[in-house]
């Protein structure tokens, strides 16, 4: 029998989507068995490419792909390796340490309104690997594109040892991934978003395949809060009553067939009486295609567990079935098990609880969301997720080390009870705000004593215009839809407190209390109330020079004192604002400002006033003030509703808010939304009183395919990007790609360095006009 394994790679700076579509069609036509793709990029909304990958795997071709070389940053997974039906491979060195260049999870398809999946799937040796030169001899190569074909070679060997008469029955993308992740050797040290299941192990995977019977399973199959650091971030913070739901997003692998169905809601089985204190709601793929789906657990402790301290153990089961295979009469059926071991503590005091606003974050894709630091030239897009567990993971660790409990809000500001939190933390936010949010936050601070801490970024319309470029692939101009932060929206939110940011772009170094800090493309404060404390420093204003010019001090460019930090008591609450978030963002951080964040939280949460921050010399005897018509204005040439979860949308509390307000407008706004429900968020019957409820889609083929798109992106949390009643976007429908392919091949292993895609194009592709750009 002929064995052929194919590898695709990019040796050029630019590679077009159409080239990949042609190559994928060739792979399908020749009935390849294994396909390695040592290329990738952040644009998981390149629909022609993503859909063709689904077609590849639906035709029983096992795709292996490099996870990316954007490490050690988190939230940097490349597509297609981040797709659940693809085996995503990270890199390690010969000491079993995660390679610094290897991209880290979690997947970002699901955020800001959900939670990402575990990726990579496995890791393999990818540093200083010997391979052939194009001419003669050998050379040493490093990169995840070297690790990926190593795994592709393992897959080819595993295919070759399965008897030919059983290959069609046993081998498929799901069963191969089951064998790899279940046979992998977990490394000590790295967490699940760095190593996935661990280092690939050929012999262990062979033993699994040798006796394999088609089944479904869950990856990861265990969530253990006591297993640190592997189970980071879950092992860093226990559950407690009154918290926002903790979301864990697992992948369903269905080795029984390309299409499968979840047979009824998942079920929580506590192993002891204390397990009844845990309430779990589920969202999941009702239709599993191709080969994979998702199971998301939304977990919170019931109020009767407010004083409980200990562990909760048990398991979640979900039944999956697939149509009978050729020659079979009955459907195939399997029960998947996810084991849980959770830590629970008594509810912390209000002053130790911080709420992180994730809802108002917008990232690339789909829009041109520019980088926060204009000093960075090689990464023009803000694409790392802006989540506490991606590029702000160091902030999360620091806050936990400081004794704070940090929760995430992926719904509007009306969807949390301000009496439970010491501080609402707003960092690097790009979206608008509902009028109800502005009004509620005003009352939360002034009347309920909520602390508010805001870290903004640059916003300058002239600079945004200068940052535009013409994309000759989509034949359109690309221009930023907002700045590093949406300052006009933040100013609306802060207006009740007499605070506003300006449109300067400030750069420079400064020192406070012996702490050296870098202010990198931050903004200035132009309005602040009398009696507050405002800190100013001499910085260079580069707003007039534009983003493409060098911001080094030169003739004609002078430094002037600019207000950048303000603190004030407002009614029962406290507000602190700072004009730069780069010192918290691990993506392009020069120096961190964790020391400043801790002092700010001491004030906003505990009314502890640091003598340095509250020196009489910086107290404002007169307010900072400019007319409203001088404040930064919104762009009028951008259809912001295309990217926003607010503009043109309905205010509704989603499934990452407290269960009691699901499907409502929030606290003190207990009015159901309009009849048109937000896609993926049916109105929840809050009167059920059950431990478990399920959130699913109807079993219609168009909806199944529509759900499947959100599924591969995890949980349908894409904020309406693919739904006809939300945006003028294509609605994906079930296709005819489900015909199984005959497994025929395996073969040759090539080594090439990884060329990372950096895509600069619109979300709506024009088919063959799309381009996948790669940087070395």
TrEMBL record:
Domain Peptidase S8/S53, by residue range, is 15-191
Q: Which residues form the MBTPS1 fourth domain?
A: 348-619
User: Where does the source fall among the domains of life?
Assistant: Eukaryota
Transmembrane stretches in the record are: 737-757
- In this chain the MBTPS1 third domain maps to 219-347
Instruction: Name the SUPFAM superfamilies for this protein.
Output: Class I glutamine amidotransferase-like, Subtilisin-like
**GO-annotated biological processes:** proteolysis
InterPro entries recorded: Class_I_gatase-like, MBTPS1_3rd, MBTPS1_4th, Peptidase_S8/S53_dom, Peptidase_S8/S53_dom_sf, Peptidase_S8_Ser-AS, Peptidase_S8_subtilisin-like
Cross-referenced Gene3D superfamilies: Peptidase S8/S53 domain (3.40.50.200)
**What Pfam families has UniProt attached to this entry?**
MBTPS1_3rd, MBTPS1_4th, Peptidase_S8
Q: Which family does the similarity line name? A: Belongs to the peptidase S8 family.
Q: What is the name attached to this protein's record?
A: Peptidase S8/S53 domain-containing protein
